[in-house]
Amino acid sequence: MADHVKRRQISETVEGSLDRHGPTVVNHLMETGEKAFRERNYDLANAYTTVALSLDPTNLDVLMRRVLILEKLALYKEAYDEARHMINLAPTDARGYLRAGRVLLAQEDKTHEAYSLFHSALAKVPTTDSRYPLLEIYRKRSSPQSRTFVSHLPYEVTRFIFRMLPLASLVQCTRVSKAWRQFTIHCPDLWRTIDLRDYPSQKRLPRNALAQCLGRAVDPHATKSNGVRELWVGNKMTMYDVVDLLVAKDCKHLSVLYMSDSDLTNRTWTRMMIKDVCVNIAHLFLSHTDISIVDVMICGGSLPNLTQLVLDGCSFGYAFSKNVKRFDLSGAEFITPSQYTTPTLPATPFPKLQILGLSSVHDMSIFALLWLLYRCPTLTMLRTMHTSLTLTRIMVAVARYCPALTYLEYSPVRLHPPVAFEPHQLPLMANMRTLRFHTEQDDAVLHTILDQCHGTLQQLSATVNDANLLHLASLNPRHLETLEIPLSPGVTERGLCALIKAAPALTLLDVSYNADAVTDTVMHALSTLRGLKIVRLFNCVKVSGAALLACVQASPTLRTLGLYQCPLDRPALLALINALSPDGIIECPHDIVLRKRTDPDAIVDAMQLDMDMEVVDEEPQQQPTVAVEPAVPLVPDLQDILRKDDLWSVYI
């Protein structure tokens, strides 16, 4: 038999088979395409649907699925053409109108056309159609009268409004309306910062929800750095799932990572380092996790851009050799963790590290601290709260290995016997600007520290006595701007006046709860300062209203005056308000803030103050330009900073 005859017979057999089994083949292709669609493999689903449509071009079910797939592929023109073909095949079927309208709604500039399409469809589709109510719903959604502020405001203004919401509220906004959803899920800037700590405490964020948030932070049209920038997780998710998603989404532009109070282990940490997820991280929070500080330092090569590292509540996990000199603590380069299997350790694992938090590290010995500081030569800020080390050793260590240090915060876990400095043991610290000591220190130790730092010292927060203030005043601290000495029982009027006269650059003074030391004489000394901005006098009962008024009138730059538990009557408070600058505030009991209103017609006839204040039974006098307003934050961004982390507000 000739070949052409055999081919003709085979072709006739195949065509007959398709004629007999065509519906079965089409159904199989549709099921396979739906499976690929559920797996989000839209290209494969489109291929199966196209073959099924070639076998049955008038099948509305196949056409409806093809329009949906083309819409997912963002092929809106082809999808609309297929939907119009459905309308031509069945003018009284609602499915064609619904698909065509959804394609138009997916395009921002086609809302009016979608409304016209749904409006005309209601006149053609019979009311007995089961999808007729859907047409009415979509007509209302596309109506010009139902447009929200998202459609009216500029893009930058709308984005600013949504960026002020926490993550839980932002996720809820995606379910309000189609307009809100289209804007929120297609605005990557809204998802660049993911903070799960505001998520309800009784719930854990599902893995797929975090995956969606990470995916929405990616801008497909961006040419520079893309994806999520800040991820604040905490204990709201399992760290294994978080690291798995960071690796899967290739989040290499992450700059802030908060994993404190979580189940982070050395194994999960090692996996994250191997995958190079943290290449661009600048701020890393690992407080109160099971990870070893030594393992973090070993992985420093994977964190070349790290500038802030918080390891509060962690542990070293290793003992250290003791090959250092006792006088100046030299020889830190020879200290090694015992029983550590890695033969070589990086000399400077973090070449850009500037901020380090080591609070509540209870197994930190002086040798462990030296091993750490030796590898952080660029350190500028160190926080060692609740430590078992003495202040003397810490000061000698940072002076030798961190000469660029500008900020030091210290408090011991328990009171130690004073350990005085040996002669010439503490070198000059020419860059130190901020000292914060939360417990009372020995006079000799504190005087030695002030001798080496007074030339550049700008901020001092400590529990001091009169001898400390007189010693600091004798050093002539010309650059001192902030002095916070609340609850210092050893301070007297003499020491305060001497220091105020020796520090002309003082802008902030907090002498709260020093009732015996703060008197009218101190207020008279404060009136000589021309740059004073903030004064807090909580529970300073010996200050009179006349002295306060004279100080306020002599300080034109004063913005904040704290008077909690001060026995002042209403006329004195009104006089202080009038004497303050227009943007000045007075902090009163129970967070009441008295402000001066710029409206010249505003008049106060009554004031509700706390019972701690003495109220004089006099007829209320008419006082112009005064009003009582609720408390407002002193700094606009303060609430946002404090919402993230206490350490963040301290360090940055």
Mean pLDDT: 80
CATH architecture of one domain: Alpha-Beta Horseshoe
Distance between the termini: 90 Å
CATH fold-level assignment of one domain: Leucine-rich repeat, LRR (right-handed beta-alpha superhelix)
Shape designation: elongated
Helix-strand makeup class? alpha/beta
Low-confidence stretches: 590-652
Q: Please, could you describe this protein's structure?
A:
There is one protein chain. By secondary structure, this protein is α/β, with parallel strands linked by helices. Among the domains are: 3-149, Alpha Horseshoe (Serine Threonine Protein Phosphatase 5, Tetratricopeptide repeat), CATH 1.25.40.10; 474-632, Leucine-rich repeat, LRR (right-handed beta-alpha superhelix). Helices cover 41% and strands 10% of the residues. It contains 25 helices and 19 strands. The strands form 2 sheets. It has a 17-stranded mixed beta sheet, with no helix packed on it. Residues 590-652 have low confidence and may be disordered.
